[in-house]
Amino acid sequence: MTPTSTLRDPRVVSALTAMFDRAAQDDATRHRVRAAWPDGFAPATPQELADANAEVYMPISADGGKLLYNLVRAVRPATVVEFGTSFGISTLHLAAAVRDNGAGRDNGAGRVISTELSADKAAAARATFAETGLDALVSVLEGDARDTLAELSGPVDFLLLDGWKDLCLPVLRLLEPRLAPGTLVVADDVDLTDLAPYLDYVRDPRNGYESVTFPVEDGMEISCRL
Fold first, then answer.
1. CA distances from 216 to 60, 68, 188, 201, 213 (A)
2. What is the DSSP letter of 165?
3. 1 lies in a domain?
4. I need a surface site. Which of 3, 30, 128, 130 has the fewest CB within 10 A?
5. Residue 135 lies in a domain
6. What is the reported pTM?
7. Which SS3 state, helix, strand or coil, does residue 133 take?
8. Does residue 106 carry a pLDDT above 60?
9. Beta bridge partners of 81
10. pLDDT by residue (tens digit) across 3-30?
11. What are phi and psi of 56, to 5 degrees?
12. Residue 88 contacts by C-beta under 8 Å, 6 or more apart in sequence?
């Protein structure tokens, strides 16, 4: 029998197709949200921004999702942590890889721990994970990741940072004690200015990373913990 990927499961294909189609309307949705928000989101807390953008998908790209799937398949992490679930597009790619890594194992397939500030998005994502049969592999921690991930026990074997860009560095610093040498840390949207402090940090050899930008959509920074 030819091996197949969980990404080709009809339930996963259907969910991803529907979400990418809805995400294509993000620009229009953002415009509507910004028009209704006083002073263009300034000042706003992360929670206020999350609630205001509860309808905006802010997805990883299709190719970015495939890259994540391939990285997780290759690295075979036991615990994957994601900062920023949104509606779960990237999470589905991570969970599909974790499931496929565990095929035929007696000790299980590992787990994905994701975080989301918006209660509406967290609920929608959980429903999608159930519909695709991946819910047993995914835990969504609802609330500020700087709080919810502080309670995390055990090592982090793969880290995706795709939440609010100005919080990527604080979340990384929070989890650094749990990153063993060789752990991969991936951040999406390197073109966004709010990610600059994070990029400066992981690109500085004094901070213990070997980092490279992968040219997919808005760019992904792939950093190896040394």
1. 10, 11, 9, 21, 9
2. G
3. no
4. 3
5. yes
6. 0.91
7. coil
8. no
9. 113, 159
10. 789 999 999 999 999 999 988 887 788 7
11. -90, 130
12. 19, 114, 124, 125, 128, 129
